[in-house]
Amino acid sequence: MNPLYTPFQIGEVALPNRLVMAPLTRGRASRDRVPNEMMVEYYTQRAGAGLIINEATIISEQAAGWVYAPGIYNAAQVQGWLKVTKSVHAAGGRIFLQLWHMGRASHPDFQPDGALPVAPSAIAIRGETHTYEGKKPYPVPRALEIGEIGGVVEDYARATRLAREAGFDGVEIHAANGYLIDQFLRDCSNHRTDQYGGAVENRARFLLEVTRAVTNTWSAGRVGVRLSPTGAFNDMEDAAPAEVFGYAAEQLNAFGLAYLHVSEPLPGHPLASNLPPVAPLLRQKFKGPFILNGGYDAALGGAAIASGAADLISFGVPFLANPDLVERFRTGAALNAPDFSTFYFGGAEGYTDYPTLEEASARR
Ligand SMILES: Cc1cc2nc3c(=O)[nH]c(=O)nc-3n(C[C@H](O)[C@H](O)[C@H](O)COP(=O)(O)O)c2cc1C
Description:
364 residues; alpha/beta; 8-stranded parallel β-barrel; two-stranded antiparallel ribbon
């Protein structure tokens, strides 16, 4: 039997299977970043996942930088998310919130008073970002003053408290894909000369301070961390990813986290790297539950668990296009084709209208 369909315990949360829905930004919230009924329906449709990790969710106004991305910094957002979590729970599911600060991947258009976005160092992403007014070049961000960093860490803690109030089962610290925490970790975006830059111990400090603050706010058995050691998204690279991410994974052992989630897409995936994989090293260093992501299907996911490479597998695009992915994998049914044009914003089309097997057969 494929081990994907067997139960697994992550920290304080018992999962009926090992198929995790990977976090997917879908840009369907309101402009004031409040979750809506369409989002309730979308997540409820996917409650068959062992665990849903919701889309990256903005932890403060300064953290924002994506059109119609939801937030978790005010009461209206908590009320919106409560509807999502209640409905997912009523459908038998479990859902974590992904804590997101975009750092230099933001733009003044998203910032209070049109301020510059903040980052470890004043180094811009090469390329353009999507704003409410269309594409614009990424700005050179403002390097955080050392005295400001504690306040940003505090924003993660407040967002964690609000996620708990909003009925989530836990939170995932987004330290992947070139956003603020990843910008501290990697040497392309961190040229600091204080205790947050330079040596790997210094570049990992911000991640570890955030993790400490979040696990002091909620029990560590309800907190996960996501890393993308060889990912190039958002203009990212590092001279020696095994060193900084190996150190981070080892240090994360101190907290007793629910899991470590590593996105390192398999060869052939559009986001695959040519660098040697770092995930096997992180599996070795990290002593808790381990989620692998990137280009997996049922067979590859089952094989990765059977070989000991991972305990759980997360699926992004497959869950996006198949609300009943677990059932389809289990029965070997064909998958819906994803519609790339509706991935990142829009309405119900390409969001809540992907049919289940049952709906597809009723339409025939
Ligand atoms: C539309 C879309 C939105 C995404 N949004 C997020 C996100 O909010 N947070 C995150 O950590 N990764 C995000 N990712 C990356 C996915 O979680 C995942 O790592 C990627 O899709 C590779 O996994 P897959 O091959 O199973 O799709 C996104 C990917 C896609 C396609």
